[in-house]
Specification:
- This protein has 132 residues and is mainly α.
- The protein contains three helices and two strands, in the order ββααα.
- The chain has a two-stranded antiparallel ribbon.
- The longest helix has 30 residues.
- The protein is elongated, with a radius of gyration of 18 Å.
- The chain starts with a strand and ends with a helix.
Length: 132
């Protein structure tokens, strides 16, 4: 996928499973610099959606192959891939919204707390259905 540099407008290539730096190689920042999605811009929102789709897609592969206690994480991840895919497609046609810092932080932490909560709620459902 090709994108335009935010600083000079020159096009650069973004590999399939890597983060978008938002700049061409002349303006590239260091490895430990803040991600593009912490910039309040449509490009930052697009980069955040791309990150969330990729990380949840990676969650689907190992968790779908495991036993049922882990299967709710695969269902959660599939739902998130579909949701963020639709959000990304909508943003492509209507324009990406500029998110607040609180929204960005919540979405960036979602790959950590989302599967944990899916597993907890699945366990609670099993306890309610079958008893302790």
């Amino acid at each position: 996928m090709r994108r335009a540099c935010q600083l000079c407008g020159e096009e650069y290539k973004v590999p399939a499973f890597s983060f978008d730096k938002g700049c061409c190689s002349k303006h590239a920042r260091g490895f430990f610099s803040e991600p593009l999605w912490f910039r309040p811009s449509p490009e930052g929102t697009r980069s955040l959606w791309d990150f969330l789709i990729k990380i949840h897609f990676v969650y689907i592969i190992p968790t779908a192959l495991l036993d049922p206690p882990i299967a709710p994480i695969a269902v959660y991840s599939l739902a998130m891939v579909l949701y963020f895919g639709a959000r990304s497609a909508t943003g492509y046609y209507r324009g990406y919204p500029i998110l607040t810092n609180r929204q960005i932080t919540g979405l960036a932490w979602l790959p950590l707390y989302g599967p944990i909560l899916a597993l907890v709620f699945s366990g609670l459902g099993q306890i309610i259905r079958h008893g302790p």
